[in-house]
Amino acid sequence: MEHTTEHIIYLLSKSKLEGLSYEEQLQLDSWRLNAASNREVCDMLDNKEMLDRDLKGLYAYDWEASFETFEQEHLSAPKTIFPFRRIWSYGIAAVLIGTLTLFFVRYLMDTGYQANPDVKILPAQTAGTIYLKNGDSIAISPKDTVLSLATLPNNLTKGNDSLLISTPKGGKMAVLLPDGTKVWMNAETQLDYYETDSLRQVRLIGEAYFEVAKKYFSSGEVSQVKPFNVQTGNIHVTVLGTHFNVKANKSLSDFRTTLYEGKVKVQQGERQIILSPGEEAYINIGHIQRRTIDTEIGNALKDGYFIFNSEPLSVIMEDISAWYNVNVVYLDNEIKSEKFEGMLSRNSRLKDIINVLESTGKVNFKFKENTIYVDKKQSK
């Protein structure tokens, strides 16, 4: 769980201003139980008598009169009382709580940031685990290249018409599925594969590039190609071709299917899109849409590149976090929506990736252990 200073301050402030989600409450509870000094901070913030006393003093202060005096002494505009002043004064309680929160935890602040990331932080290495139907599991190490399930001992593969493959943060994997389909898996990806007499099915969370092998099954006297279907959330991708990429996070806020060869059908509820090479399906306001992309630059995951085509920084940092196994904390939330373009090797040092982003003059980074702190570039 994230216990960085800025994140704890954020949780303490949010707990008093608007309330925490279930996951955020678990994080704050974990931090509170970690040390007696942490419990003291929470106890001080929970001291309602002290907060009530300070709030009463704040409410008793004549904010409108104070504002008018300031206006007369420092502003040349005619004196007019705007409605927003009253609204502004109603928010003083929230401001005080936030200020008190920062006051109580300011001793936590540590300026010991590093200008560069730790040299021990490396690009993703081959790593992951394959869980077989019979209960066995296979740990993948960096020495492995492409793992073929067809080459495993018979006692492991026998009856394995289903399996689960996962990669951790900082891990990647290339695997040959039992049907001969080759898959390149990104970091922090989970792939659940099973096969029946008439269907091949994949459930995916994360990102993977597929080169689907043709496989046939008999339907009466006719042999038909066995369908290959990828499901992520409520979106289904049915293969009518061979080479395509699917990327989807758990919430489906970032989903895309990119076609490089053949055809695929992307379906969400009753809406479906048939993609041709050079087209991509993506999520826009909760619904799948189609757009044209440049496939000449190749597939980023398979070919070993980060390709950012006017991507928000939040999406870029998600990729960097998974690939380099680092945490990301934003010191300015507005910077998340800033968009960037670029093409960088996935074998690059983290420092080189950061230098390219900073060279745009839009964003600053600083580091502490394996955490990246992201801030908006301050104008001089």
Give a structural overview.
The chain has 380 residues and is an alpha+beta fold. It has three domains: 104 residues, no CATH class; 175 residues, Sandwich (Jelly Rolls), CATH 2.60.120; 76 residues, Phage tail protein beta-alpha-beta fold (3-Layer(bab) Sandwich). 29% of the residues lie in helices and 35% in strands. The chain has eleven helices and 24 strands. It has a 17-stranded mixed beta sheet that branches. A three-stranded mixed beta sheet has the order 21-24-23, covered by helices on one side. It has a two-stranded antiparallel sheet with strand order 10-11. A hairpin with a 2-residue loop joins strand 18 and strand 19. Helix 1 packs across helix 2, helix 1 packs antiparallel against helix 7 and helix 4 crosses helix 7. The two termini are 36 Å apart. About 6% of the residues have low confidence.
Brief overview, please?
The protein is of the alpha+beta class and 380 residues long. The chain has 11 helices and 24 strands. The chain has helices spanning 5-17, 22-32, 36-45, 48-60, 63-74, 83-90, 92-104, 154-157, 300-303, 313-324, 350-358; strands spanning 125-126, 128-132, 137-140, 146-148, 162-167, 171-176, 182-185, 189-195, 200-211, 216-219, 222-225, 228-232, 235-239, 243-248, 255-261, 264-268, 271-275, 279-284, 287-292, 305-312, 327-330, 339-345, 363-368, 371-376.
